[in-house]
Design goal:
The complex is a heterodimer of chains A (163) and B (417).
Chain A: E1 3-10, H1 17-20, H2 31-34, H3 46-49, E2 55-58, H4 70-77, E3 82-85, H5 90-98, E4 102-105, H6 109-112, E5 118-122, E6 126-129, E7 132-135, H7 141-149, H8 152-159
Parallel strand pairs in A: 1-2, 2-3, 3-4
Antiparallel strand pairs in A: 1-5, 5-6, 6-7
Helix pairs in contact in A: 7-8
Chain B: H1 5-14, E1 23-27, E2 30-34, H2 38-47, E3 59-62, H3 75-87, E4 93-94, H4 100-106, E5 115-118, E6 132-135, H5 138-147, E7 149-153, E8 157-163, H6 172-183, E9 192-196, H7 198-202, H8 205-214, E10 222-225, H9 229-235, H10 241-244, E11 256-261, E12 268-270, E13 278-280, H11 281-284, E14 291-295, H12 296-299, H13 302-312, E15 322-326, H14 330-338, H15 341-348, E16 351-352, E17 373-376, E18 392-395, H16 398-407
Parallel strand pairs in B: 2-3, 2-5, 3-4, 5-6, 8-9, 8-11, 9-10, 14-15, 14-17, 15-16, 17-18
Antiparallel strand pairs in B: 1-7, 12-13
Helix pairs in contact in B: 2-5, 6-8, 13-15, 13-16
The chains are: A alpha/beta (163), B alpha/beta (417).
Chain lengths: 163, 417
């Protein structure tokens, strides 16, 4: 049973990909160059405050908007260990899985959480917060295969006989 | 049991009947990559260990977000793209012909019933000709380039029925904005939208395109119209039996059905800064504005420019307002020039720019600053989308946008003389 704990940053509903990383920074060469601008339209100071192992908790439709894969990559590069939201936008969901960023859908935690508090995630089972358990679903098998391989790039390398 | 349009397209592709929730691997008919993401696609493709494209003729590379280049490093993307195309024998490269989603249908890359993916969320646009098309990220694109396949979850379908005749100052943009407001920004997430009814049957392919384009703003995976004689003419083909069959069956299972009377639609706008914050234009009247933008893959087509020209003919843009017009493709630009539309717009005081994505994605060609307000015909009014995070973006139809440009403030669309 995999289990981890992290400090929580709380964001709202409909956190879109232009908030996660505005288009003007998308042509910077690397994710490391871009990551300081993460969430800048909404909270310019946030990227500098996030520490490795932190967790984002958000409302519905997290990651809506464009197909930019830099969005999950930046969240991962900032050190975020997983995003727990009421729901995720479709393309962002696929992109996150393909890049090994863990996403967890949980319908009620967001309504009760306070920024700065800690939560513990017990993978495929529940989230512990304030002495209460919030149930979570497990991912479909084909997605777990990609995650187990370490993301889509590694899965394809395996297919091509490289690893 | 009956099937929805998306279920028919997927059945045809995978060779067996499917139902919502099934996870299947589809054979991809065409892919589109644009300039912003080509360096990332190329890098991932190499990293994955592929040495050739599954089918070079099925890959289309389009430069549009960075055309013309506005920042120091932008042209690097073109060099990477050109090198990739040459190395892997790609012929379908467009370097300055227009916006990707316009070109994919206009240049005949997408046909009814196709399965198409693109590295852009507005790839849903090709549903206007009855294709299943959706946006993906660059890692996933790299794996399609190598394998020609992708896994998908068969979506549930939301049916949208619109019957009757739209009021004359209402465009298909007003229709889709209202629907997004009703569905909300997440209301169609993972789902397929299926449009039907006499109103959409009477719409041009261009008008349908605006609606498929914006379906992603309700989270939809795709947004389909049944191919008809207009589709056939637009695509320059004769519909085959499969393409003709792409209507939802009577006994198909829908997640829900929304029904509208066309006569009930009014001109609306999406107010800052959510696409589903829809208000009648009338309620917003009097709000002063700094700029108007008519263009983008949502509303940069000939009929859009024509609607703007009808309003602007013999009028002047308010003197403190900047009006920027961007045709969606070179073909549209030239048609508009031939028809005298560009002349009318220029005479009224519009700045007409080269086809591209610059202003819509906040990179070039009219980006705004704190406190400014813009009425725009594109598809997103997110914080920071067209300039700083304190720019207020009101999304509206080309007719509304042009009317606001003349008035210098938000006004209900006028019909021109």
């Amino acid at each position: 049973m995999e289990k981890f704990t992290g400090k929580v940053w709380v964001l709202g509903d409909d956190i879109d990909t232009d908030i996660i990383i505005p288009t003007e920074y998308l042509a910077l060469k690397t994710i490391d160059d871009m990551k300081q601008y993460g969430f800048s339209p909404l909270r310019p100071e946030l990227a500098g405050q996030i520490r490795k192992g932190d967790i984002i908790v958000a409302g519905k439709n997290f990651g809506c908007g464009s197909s930019r894969e830099q969005a999950p990559e930046i969240i991962k590069a900032l050190g975020i260990q997983c995003v727990i939201a009421k729901s995720f936008a479709r393309i962002f969901f696929r992109n996150s899985i393909n890049n090994g960023l863990l996403l967890i859908e949980q319908p009620t935690l967001y309504d009760e959480i306070k920024e700065g508090d800690e939560v513990t995630v017990v993978l495929n089972e529940h989230v512990d917060y304030n002495g209460k358990q919030y149930p979570i679903a497990s991912l479909p098998e084909n997605l777990m295969d990609i995650i187990r391989a370490g993301g889509l790039v590694k899965a394809m390398r395996k297919l091509n006989g490289l690893d | 049991m009956g099937e929805t349009v998306i279920e028919k397209i997927i059945r045809n592709n995978v060779g067996k009947a499917v139902k919502p929730g099934d996870i299947v691997t589809v054979n991809v008919d065409r892919v589109m990559i644009h300039d912003i993401f080509i360096p990332f696609v190329a890098e991932k493709f190499k990293e994955m260990g592929f040495t050739k494209l599954w089918d070079p003729d099925k890959v289309v590379l389009i430069y549009d977000h960075l055309v013309p280049a506005s920042q120091l490093d932008d042209t690097r993307h073109f060099h990477v793209g050109d090198e990739f195309a040459k190395k892997f024998g790609m012929k379908n490269v467009h370097r300055s012909d227009g916006i990707c989603h316009q070109l994919m249908t206009e240049a005949g890359y997408v046909k009814p019933g196709n399965v198409v993916f693109g590295t852009d969320s507005h790839t849903t646009t090709y549903g206007c000709v009855g294709a299943f098309s959706s946006g993906i990220g660059y890692t996933e694109m790299a794996s399609i380039l190598g394998t020609g396949t992708m896994w998908i979850r068969v979506p549930e379908t939301i049916k949208i029925v619109i019957d009757g005749e739209l009021p004359e100052n209402v465009m298909s943009k007003d229709v889709i904005l209202r629907i997004i407001g009703d569905l909300t920004a997440a209301g169609a997430t993972y789902r397929s939208l299926e449009f039907t009814g006499s109103t959409v049957k009477n719409m041009s392919v261009a008008s349908r395109m605006t609606m498929s384009n914006m379906a992603i703003e309700a989270g939809a995976k795709c947004a389909l119209f049944t191919p008809d004689e207009k589709t056939a003419e637009y695509c320059g083909i004769e519909l085959d039996d499969f393409q003709k069959s792409l209507a939802g069956d009577e006994d198909a299972v829908y997640m829900k059905t929304l029904t509208y009377r066309a006569e009930d639609f009014v001109p609306v706008m999406a107010c800052p800064s959510q696409v589903d914050k829809i208000r009648p234009v009338e309620e917003m009247e009097g709000t002063e504005i700094d700029q108007v933008f008519i263009g983008s893959c949502t509303n940069g087509r000939l009929e859009d420019l024509q609607a703007a020209a009808e309003v602007l003919k013999g009028k002047k843009v308010a003197d403190y307002v900047k009006l920027i017009v961007t045709p969606a493709s070179r073909k549209i630009y030239r048609q508009a020039a031939d028809m005298g539309i560009l002349d009318i717009l220029a005479e009224a005081g519009a700045m007409i720019t080269h086809p591209g994505c610059g202003l819509c994605c906040g990179r070039a060609g009219g980006i705004l600053t704190d406190g400014e307000r813009v009425v725009a015909t594109n598809n997103r009014n997110f914080l920071g989308r067209m300039g700083t995070s304190k720019v207020q973006i009101y999304l509206a139809s080309p007719r509304t946008a042009a009317s606001c440009a003349v008035a210098g403030k938000i006004v209900n669309p006028v019909m021109g003389e």
